Every structure is written in structure tokens, then in C-alpha cells.
Amino acid sequence: MPFTASQAANNATMVTVEGQLIVANRQELKQLVQDALDRGARRFVFDFTPTAYIDSSGLGALVSISKRVREAGGDLRLAGLNEDLRSLFELTKLDTLFAISNTPAEALAAD
Questions:
Q1: Does the predicted model carry a pTM greater than 0.90?
Q2: Which residues pair with residue 100 across a beta bridge?
Q3: Do the beta carbons of residue 14 and residue 36 sit within 8 Å?
């Protein structure tokens, strides 16, 4: 399973994305977040530290997830993007949509 969710500080749900976020597994991530929303979670930090690659469908899934979380009154932050992933977010202008922190700890500490 490429995604794990755990409770973190500040009542946040930490979602770790391992390996790749691609067309083959994007629905799994969307379902994980929806299940957490259904349980009342509203604060999410996605840890991309162990992530090597995100394809266009993975980016689309993140946009969709972000919209769902916002509609539920929640907050979604991204953290741990490597240099290539950060460039991808900048090139696609998605760095303007997402709050991006260098580390998961920084994301958890942000208000």
C-alpha cells in the first residue's frame, strides 16, 4: 500500500505517500482522504518525503482532494517535496493552490 494515514500533532491526519502517485493508485488516495473526512478529520498534511514521482493524474487527484477538503471546512498542506516535485508544482502553478512546507514538522506547526 503506497499510502499510510496516521494521527499527528494538532489533530492533523498525516498522509504519507510512498513511491509514486500515479493513475493506478490515485483513487486509493482519494478514498483514504474521503474516509478520514467521513470520520471528522479536517486537517491534513501530505508527506511526500518518500515520493519519487507524481504523474498528471496524481496532480489532478491532489487538486480534487484539495477541493473536497476545503468544501468540508478543512485544511490541506503538502510537505517534503524533493527538488523535482517542487519544480513540477512550480511549473504547473500548483504551488499557488497548495500550502507547501519543507518538512512535515513545519506543516504541522503552521496555523
A1: yes
A2: 78
A3: no
Distance set, CA 85 to CA 33, 37, 52 (Å):
21, 26, 8
CATH says 3-109 is which class?
alpha beta
The tens digit of pLDDT for each residue in 69-103 reads: 999 999 999 999 999 999 999 999 999 999 999 99
Domain boundaries, the chain: 3-109
Per-residue three-class SS string for 17-85? ECEEECCCCHHHHHHHHHHHHHCCCCEEEEECCCEEEECHHHHHHHHHHHHHHHHCCCEEEEECCCHHH
CB 77 within 8 A of CB 44: yes
Among 1-5, 31-35, 64-68, 78-82, which stretch is predicted with the lowest mean pLDDT?
1-5
